[in-house]
Design goal:
alpha+beta, 6-stranded antiparallel beta barrel, 12 strands, extended
Length: 360
């Protein structure tokens, strides 16, 4: 008798098969990033939904800006003008210092200084998982965003990009439990690693000895090691130091300087432009030599021209003497080689004649 409904595998078998398949996919994605294309495609499909969800918040901010009173706008304008004036004064000082630094680098023939390219992006989503510190940005492949790219705000470093889609990207904050960043203490230059803890306002410095020179309030800046984060960007400030008895390392905690849970705009950084290349430095040195030669008086130039043929003649005579010595040595060697067999033949003849005489 044939049943109407064919009975398939049990739910337990299906669950085990799905669990095995999910573990295999997670392993493949973690080891070889084979599903990055699938993830980016799904992100591109879901992006309109994410944008529509973020739209009410955008409308709220737009209405708040549009319906502001004249008095508040004037106050903000005065505040911005004062900040702008302060920034211009500081920028003038920085320009002078930068020019002086470039001159010193040319004198020392140092490596070229890298400059960063920046791009403003907006946060359109936040991961609701309490154990993950992830944000969604509205810039992707079409804007040149790449995986591992650092992001900052006006206060300091925020994190780096971990997934990239066509029009959006996902960034991990520095407070995520799986994130670490190489830093150095601004006051002493001592290098360390800062680890996320999963809390939005808490970072850890691990594996530091008890005799380390560190104080409350010290600023941590990026060291530039590893190549992911550019150097000298502020990261955090030390807020807690404990030397526990019996523990091999010091317990040190820090607070991020960036406004991780408040800001809505971030800056994407590219480390791909160089202010002065090695070729430029060589060209500059050649130009300097040319200018020095042109600045010499005519008498010096004439003396240098006169000295030039003398040096050439002396070099020619030296080479002739060396060549003559080589030929003499070779002649002596050939003479020795030819004399040796003749001497042997004469010795043999004398021996034979002596033998004949003794026989007779």
């Amino acid at each position: 008798m044939q049943t109407l409904f064919i009975r398939g595998p049990s739910t337990t078998v299906r669950m085990v098969a799905l669990v095995i398949a999910s573990i295999a996919l997670m392993t493949i994605d973690h080891r070889w990033q084979s599903l990055e294309l699938v993830r980016s495609t799904i992100s591109s499909i879901v992006y309109p939904v994410q944008y529509s969800i973020d739209l009410p918040i955008r409308l709220y901010y737009w209405a708040n800006e549009t319906l502001s009173t004249k008095q508040t706008l004037l106050e903000k304008n005065r505040e911005f003008e004062a900040r702008h004036l302060e920034n211009r004064v500081q920028l003038q000082k920085l320009n002078i210092i930068e020019k002086e630094n470039d001159r010193l680098r040319r004198l020392l023939s140092a490596t070229p200084k890298t400059t960063e390219r920046l791009l403003i992006s907006e946060i359109i989503g936040v991961d609701l998982d309490p154990y993950r510190q992830l944000i969604l940005l509205n810039k992707g492949n079409k804007s040149g965003v790449y995986r591992g790219q650092p992001i900052i705000d006006s206060k300091g470093v925020m994190g780096q990009i971990i997934h990239v889609a066509a029009r959006s990207s996902t960034a991990m904050l520095i407070t995520d439990a799986s994130h670490a960043i190489p830093v150095q203490i601004d006051r002493t230059g001592h290098r360390a690693n800062v680890f996320g803890t999963g809390k939005i306002d808490h970072l850890d410095l691990r594996h530091l000895p008890h005799n380390i020179d560190i104080q409350l309030g010290d600023m941590l800046i990026t060291s530039g090691l590893g190549g992911a984060f550019p150097p000298n960007y502020p990261v955090a400030r030390i807020t807690k130091i404990e030397h526990e008895a019996g523990e091999p390392f010091t317990t040190i905690e820090a607070t991020p300087l960036a406004q991780l849970d408040e800001t809505r705009e971030v800056l994407l950084i590219w480390r791909n432009t160089i202010s002065t290349t090695e070729g430029d430095t060589e060209k500059n040195s050649q130009n300097e030599n040319r200018t020095i030669d042109s600045e010499k008086p005519s008498s010096e130039k004439e003396t240098s021209k006169k000295d030039a043929p003398e040096t050439n003649e002396s070099e020619v005579t030296k080479t002739k003497k060396q060549n003559s010595k080589k030929t003499d040595v070779q002649k002596k060697k050939t003479e020795k080689k030819t004399k040796a067999p003749l001497e042997k033949s004469n010795v043999e003849k004398n021996k034979k004649s002596a033998d004949r005489g003794s026989r007779e």
